[in-house]
Design brief:
By secondary structure, this protein is mainly α. It is 69% helix and 11% strand.
Amino acid sequence: MNNKYILGIITALLLFVSMAVQAQGPVNDSLTSTPAGFSNDTTSRSIKSNSTAKKDTSTFVKHSPKKATWLSVCLPGAGQAYNKKYWKMPIVYAAGGTAVYGIVFYTKQYNNFKSAYSERLTTGSNEDGYYNQFQTPTLKSYRDYYRYYRDLSYIGLGAVYILQIVDAAVDAHFFDFKITEDLSLNVQPTYQFVGATPSSQLLFTFKF
């Protein structure tokens, strides 16, 4: 009787231990095993990709508006190249070249008519027969005409120089600015009380 009792107790203990081991087995497996549909390679690749992303974030260099500005100051068009707006460089050089051509052309004509006018006032005629066909007031008028457009060409060249600096600085400030494609405008009627009088309004919500 005692032997059967002891044997029953031992058998019950063995069953309890085996059940406990089976109950703990899935828990341990869930901690160490990979979920269904995923492999260890996938997990390792995700860890590597996360570490790579962290490295890329740490080495990210912000676009410098100051650098773009100084490049444009030293060399017109260089700031546009730094901002990767290469299509603007021909515009800068075309505008600047036009202004320089105007300066050279109008300066030459101004100097010629200035000398001819001074000679006319001094001697009453011009050694160069080309200027003899013009009356004295006409020589003065041409001199003033070319001087005006010479000065205007200088102003144009200065304007082109300043504008390309401003353009490079503004583009550099917005270089890292990202605009999402999810743009929406929500219009919703609403009202509020102004004192004791209700006032209807329209609420515009712009999402970008």
